[in-house]
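Possible regression after last week's pipeline update?

I re-ran a chain I had predicted before the update to compare outputs. Posting the input and the new output here so someone can diff against the archived version. Not blocking, just want to make sure nothing changed silently.
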Amino acid sequence: MGRFPQYALTGAVGTLFNLVVFWLLTEYLGLWYVLASIAAFLVRSFFKFTLLCLWVYPKARGVRHRMWWFLGMEAFGLILGTTLLYLGVEGLGIPHLPALVLVITILYLVSFLASRHIVGKGHEGDSVI
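New output (post-update):
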């Protein structure tokens, strides 16, 4: 079955973490949803990379090198996600929390396709699914 179940669980926990941080920042601290999204995304990224390295791809080599690739992908995801969130809320009138769920879903699919080649590179005998 490959690494997909572990990757999916890592993504689900990261998504829950992201949504909780976002919700706390917007609802309790009154932070603007765009800034809250960026902060939650950054916290989730650190959490996700740690889980990917320790649990999903524990035998992968060159973690530091892949960390930079991962951060590059996350930066791309942050820019794309923030743009999509803003367009969804301001352009389509979707409330900020459901819009974030939609954006996270889109980014999750892109991330899954890319992470095997970035974080999991060098992991012995692995298949994505």
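Follow-up from reviewer: compared with the archived run. Confidence is low (pLDDT under 50) at residues 125-129. Marking as no regression found.
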